[in-house]
Design a protein that fits this description.
The chain has 275 residues and is mainly alpha-helical. It contains 15 helices and two strands. A two-stranded antiparallel sheet has the order 1-2. Helix 5 crosses helix 9. The protein is rod-shaped, with a radius of gyration of 32 Å. The protein starts with a helix and ends with a helix.
Length: 275
Amino acid sequence: MRYSIGELARRTGLTVKAVRFYSDRGLVPPAERNSAGHRLYDGAALARLDLIRTLRELGLDLATIRRVVDGEVTVADVAARHADALAVQIRLLRLRRSVLTVVAERGSTPEETSLMNQLAQLSDTERRRLVDGFLRDALGSRPELAGIARTLTPELPDNPESVQVEAWIELAELTQDAEFRGVLRRLADDHPGGLRRDLTAEVRSAVDAGVAPGSPEAAEIVDGLGRDPGRLRAWLAAARDPRRARYLELLAIVNGWAAPESLAPTLDWLAEAVS
């Protein structure tokens, strides 16, 4: 069966101009010409046009389409490469959208916008270097804190959601905060050993039970911690820094973890109890 250009256009949903364009470039050669010199096409041409239309809708360029219809490469091979390229583009668009979202929400200055864009587009290696440097400076190199450093390390996934990118930008900005590094260093330098277990046991039980922080019972609990009151107050001041809690919240978002349980009520109670 033979088809005119008009019939091919109707069957494929393309315009006559588009069919003629593909034919002129040799992608859909005519099977023959009629006595009037008009081009006629066969079923193979119809199938090629369907394939060309599909590949064009998927965003492939004409050079690649020519290689497919000529049998030089398979549709599967081209689709795989194109999908990989689109994944890169999508990731870049997500990064750009996240930066613009944060800029719009904050009303950022040009300088802040530039910094956020740089932080958002860091490679995996660059992100790791930035975080490792931050944690090394904040926690030092004490072996007993190596586990804590691992739990404080953000791992942005290969295909992050916009909310994860936005969280990473804010977290990365925190790593540049010298005062925040100092807060973590104070916590690390006076790492309280068993204090964290006590916070999750006796002190938290007292908070849950409604024990007044200024009561004799509270004083007895504080004495049982076995900590110098002055050092404990200094440690609590650092532990209650809102940037510490915010870092943990952002870390959970970036890593896809459940939101961390807030220690604020316990720390506030303890701070009042030792004041």
